[in-house]
Specification:
Blueprint lengths: L1 H24 L7 H44 L12 H12 L7 E2 L20 E3 L7 E8 L5 H7 L3 H4 L3 E11 L4 E4 L3 E2 L8 E3 L5
Antiparallel strand pairs: 1-6, 2-7, 3-4, 4-5
Length: 209
């Protein structure tokens, strides 16, 4: 029984000793150097914690403001108009549409040396868009050729627009050009005004297709 009492007293002393050391070491006086140092450290840490989010927020605001200014400058600055140039067949279509607004006046036919295009009184180009208003066929052309005298109306009626069959009545003549529809034919080398050829009912067919 005495041993138990001694053990209890020893435990009480140990408990009191350690508890007293903990209680004495843990509190720090406000006016002590440790307290001031601890306060400074805490102040620095808190200032750092406050400074970091503030700086990040300010940086984000500046970035947003710069982006808005750039967008406004971009909207206010005149944008250059991009010209889209067509390629390939579209170019040919565009060019043909430009000339499509004009018709030959007067209408000329001519030999293979005569340039094809829109004919005028000053530019005697050979019309390459001829159509006959009698048979309503497009006029075919054969460069460096002329019709044989045996080519008649019946032959043209049966063979136009088969170019291969028509060639059986053609003769090779350099510089000439042979024309034919289903009812008429013509061969020539010099620019010829169709107004002087009343037997040919051919007109510029640019707007008739």
């Amino acid at each position: 029984m005495a041993d138990d009492d001694d053990l209890d007293e020893l435990l009480d002393e140990v408990e009191k000793k350690f508890c007293r050391n903990v209680s004495v070491a843990s509190p720090v006086r406000a006016d002590s150097p440790e307290a001031s140092k601890c306060g400074k450290d805490k102040g620095k840490q808190s200032a750092t914690k406050l400074k970091q989010p503030i700086s990040s927020v300010v940086a984000e605001d500046i970035d947003v403001l710069l982006e808005e200014l750039l967008e406004e400058d971009h909207r206010d600055s005149p944008q250059p108009k991009m010209k889209h140039f067509p390629k390939g067949p579209q170019v040919e279509k565009k060019l043909s549409s430009q000339f499509g607004g004009r018709k030959c006046c007067p209408v000329f036919v001519g030999g293979s040396a005569v340039t094809n295009g829109v004919g005028t009184a000053t530019s005697k180009r050979s019309c390459d868009q001829l159509r006959c208003i009698s048979c309503d066929f497009r006029v075919l052309m054969f460069d460096d050729s002329e019709w044989d005298s045996s080519c008649d109306y019946l032959f043209l009626r049966n063979n136009v627009p088969d170019r291969q069959k028509l060639r059986t009545k053609l003769k090779k003549r350099r510089g000439l050009r042979a024309y034919a529809c289903q009812c008429s034919r013509f061969s020539g080398s010099e620019p010829t005004d169709l107004g002087d050829q009343p037997q040919l009912r051919w007109v510029c067919g640019k707007h008739l297709d």
